Amino acid sequence: MDCAGSARCGGAGLVRPDLDEDGMTNATYLYCLVRSARAPSLRGAPAGLPGAAPTRTIDAGGGLWLVAADAPLDRYGEKPIERGLQDLAWVSSVAVPHEAVVEHLAKIGTVVPMKLLTLFRSDERALEHVARQRKRIDRLLERIEGREEWGIRVLLDEVAALRRAREEAQTVSAGAPGAAFLLRKKKEHDAAREAIEHARDRADELFELLAAKADDARRRPPPPGEVGKRVLLDAAFLLPRRKARAFQAAVRASAKKLSGRDYQLTLSGPWPAYTFVADTEPK
Questions:
Q1: pLDDT tens-digit series, residues 50-67
Q2: Quick one: pLDDT at residue 15?
Q3: 62 Rama sector, left if φ>0, alpha if ψ -120 to 50, beta otherwise
Q4: How many Cβ atoms from other residues are within 10 Å of residue 59's Cβ?
Q5: Which of 147, 115, 101 is nearest to 3 (CA)?
Q6: For 19-23, 97-101, 194-198, 203-207, which range has the lowest pLDDT when averaged over its residues?
Q7: Is 90 in the same domain as 158?
Q8: Dist. CA 58–CA 126, nearest whole Å
């Protein structure tokens, strides 16, 4: 799992770590906030973080629930976390169960995912912090209620695209008089540059097309691609559940147009609104 390039490892920045570990053995770990008329059922919920206690709910009042667990500080204190963050395998070992809990709860109510490794000294500290942020949380819940996140990634097979551009340039410049070699090289260079620019333009057009069908859309910084593959677009779209089928159909139509042209389009989702809770300040 590539957390550096995945919004799913993110979440709302509403709750910050607040630990004074002296004399403590456990801290309150938060997975997410859930809006639900009654306590969300945890029957069948994933196990959660390795070494943590079973997942439980904390009533924040007004139909808002914290989904939490007791986390041992010998595994999730400041120093163990600092060491663990240097190890991608360790990060994956906590990120995967964290998001599994969040995604399970998203089937029950509207969910605000917490950032990975959000810890508080106690349940009371977590509740106090949420109470201070309550107006912002309620606005955020209104924004995402009844909606889900879908992800789009477009890759360009850069090697194949450049080879195709150079071959076309060679065909055009064949038989040119005079400095044919230099002319051909210039045409190849220009064709390669134009191929990349054209690919970026197509990705921009696709984003605008799909963004028009969503309530909100965000482009994310492209993660590193495979060798020879350029990530042209990495984006998230927030849309009402009732529009999901139409959105998927639009994506399939776009993928069909791009097929056979050195592009690879991938659709992922539905997810909780990871990307759209990360910026909690009102615009």
A1: 999 999 999 999 999 999
A2: 41
A3: left
A4: 12
A5: 115
A6: 19-23
A7: no
A8: 10
Q: Are residues 132 and 15 in the same domain?
A: yes
Q: Is the pLDDT of residue 215 over 90?
A: yes
* Total domains present in the chain: 2
Domain that holds residue 76: 3-145
Classify the C-alpha dihedral 16-21-23-24 as positive or negative: positive
Task: Enter the tokens of residue 53.
Answer: 């206690």
CB 219 within 8 A of CB 235: yes
Average pLDDT over residues 185-203: 63
Q: Is residue 59 part of a domain?
A: yes
Q: Are residues 80 and 160 in the same domain?
A: no
Of 11, 34, 12, nearest to 107 by C-alpha is 34
Whether 69 is in a domain gets the answer yes
Question: What single letter denotes the amino acid at residue 194?
Answer: E
Mean pLDDT of 247-267: 84
Tokens of 273: 């609104």
Prediction pTM value:
0.75
Strands laid side by side in the 56-61 sheet: 56-61, 64-72, 26-35, 110-120
